[in-house]
Design brief:
The protein is 12% helix and 44% strand. It has two helices and 13 strands, in the order H-E-E-E-E-E-E-E-E-E-E-H-E-E-E. Strands 1, 2, 3, 4, 5, 7, 9, 10, 12 and 13 form a ten-stranded mixed sheet that branches.
Length: 190
């Protein structure tokens, strides 16, 4: 299924790029429907909203795919909770990937059981890997608390200035093995 989403995104993005050439006068908020797909600014979804792709509008190249679980907003913030714009992060700093409006968990006794993982990779392999940042919530979380998730990365040794790294944040539902959200960002340490 993940490969199908990747192919679907690639085909649809190609169509968007071709359609967008030549100075379109369409509004950013306009939605285009193609079969069971809806396309709007930086987002492609199925008409039922359960599968899709989201890009960002802050020139960071942050990319997210999802299926089953849904997410309203994904953004990058620095250690001072200010939005990151661009693809560079200072050495000896922190940044977070924040997912807001996460929905569609399979609830147990009215609680959500999200699994939040993060991985940071460089040229030589994995720099940081955490399988479940929410493992301490064995009794679950309120739906409200589970709707906003944040993974924070520290930019420091063994990372090096001038090198490029890729981080990935994953969200899963511990009560349902299918749904997921996967966010990826490639950045350079300055």
């Amino acid at each position: 299924m993940k490969n199908m989403i990747k192919k679907m995104v690639a085909i649809t993005l190609s169509g968007i790029l071709l359609a967008g050439c030549g100075g379109s006068s369409k509004k950013e908020s306009e939605t285009i429907k193609l079969g069971d797909m809806e396309i709007k600014a930086n987002e492609i979804t199925t008409t039922d909203g359960t599968k899709g792709f989201k890009g960002d509008i802050d020139n960071t190249n942050l990319q997210t795919i999802y299926e089953g679980l849904t997410v309203e907003k994904i953004h990058l913030i620095d250690g001072n909770d200010k939005k990151i714009k661009g693809e560079e992060v200072p050495f000896n700093s922190k940044f977070s990937i924040v997912l807001e409006g996460v929905k569609n968990y399979s609830l147990k006794d009215g609680k959500a059981f999200p699994k939040l993982g993060m991985i940071l990779m460089g040229e030589t392999g994995v720099v940081v890997g955490e399988d479940d940042l929410l493992a301490s919530y064995a009794d679950g979380m309120s739906v409200e608390d589970a709707s906003v998730l944040r993974a924070t990365f520290t930019v420091g040794a063994p990372m090096e200035a001038g090198k490029t790294y890729t981080c990935q944040v994953s969200v899963a539902d511990k009560n349902n093995s299918g749904p997921f959200i996967m966010t990826t960002w490639m950045f350079t340490v300055k």
